[in-house]
Design goal:
- This protein is mostly helical.
- The chain has one domain: Rhopdopsin 7-helix transmembrane proteins (Up-down Bundle), CATH 1.20.1070.
- Helix content is about 75%, strand content about 5%.
- It has a two-stranded antiparallel sheet.
- Strand 1 and strand 2 form a beta hairpin.
- Helix 1 runs parallel beside helix 9, helix 4 packs antiparallel against helix 5 and helix 7 packs antiparallel against helix 8.
């Protein structure tokens, strides 16, 4: 993330614990929320991978830095675009919105491939050529000298994110609203390191899922009493 390998690995550890608690709660009380509950675990993997990026960068290990960067950007550019609408779909009850989220899953997957494939293949005008530090955060530099920050493609990326707020599920909507709020704030404060910084705060946002699930469960129990 923004500061060091220690920050990345530390957040990954916290997210693993949070994800385990969320998953345990979902399995025990409401399996409908299982996909949402395991989301912090995927964020933990992403944060751990950026910890490896820091190790490679600080140790001047180019191959390790590149490999870990590609894995990190898999989550940032492709996985979340397909996973988040999948979670929304799993929680949706309205038929037309289920169709809507299926469409967003397909769009997210295809657009994510468009963003990440050049990074994976290390070719073309948008492939990753260097991972560097901008300020106190990691930034990923493309072959044309631009950054993975605010480009036309990432405006589309953000627009897709706002569409996920159309979910009918209140728990999911509250969680994702916080993620998007961080995205907007970081847009205006740390554009050069948008990918790294937003993913970090989005990851921490998943810890709120546990409290949202607990409150939702308590509300249902109270309603049944």
């Amino acid at each position: 993330m923004c500061f060091s390998a220690t920050a990345s690995f530390g957040s990954a550890a916290v997210l693993l614990v949070g994800g385990a608690l969320c998953t345990r709660h979902a399995i025990k009380n409401d399996k409908t929320y299982l996909l949402l509950a395991i989301t912090p675990i995927f964020f933990a993997l992403q944060q751990a991978s950026e910890g490896v990026v820091w190790i490679g960068y600080n140790g001047n290990l180019t191959s390790l830095t590149t490999a870990a960067s590609i894995f990190y950007l898999f989550f940032a550019l492709l996985f979340w675009l397909a996973w988040i609408p999948t979670v929304a779909f799993s929680l949706e009850t309205k038929k037309w919105k289920r169709i809507f989220f299926i469409t967003l899953i397909i769009i997210g997957f295809v657009f994510g491939l468009y963003l990440w494939t050049p990074v994976l293949l290390e070719t073309g005008p948008r492939h990753l050529v260097k991972t560097s530090v901008c300020g106190h955060s990691l930034c990923y530099i493309l072959s044309d000298g631009s950054l993975f920050s605010i480009t036309a493609g990432h405006i589309i990326y953000s627009s897709l994110g706002f569409l996920f707020l159309l979910s009918s599920n209140q728990v999911f909507r509250k969680f994702w609203a916080l993620v998007m709020l961080f995205g907007v704030i970081i847009y205006f404060t740390q554009r050069e390191t948008w990918v790294s910084t937003w993913c970090f705060f989005a990851a921490l946002s998943t810890l709120w899922i546990y409290f949202l699930l607990m409150n939702d469960y308590k509300a249902k129990i109270k309603k049944q009493a």
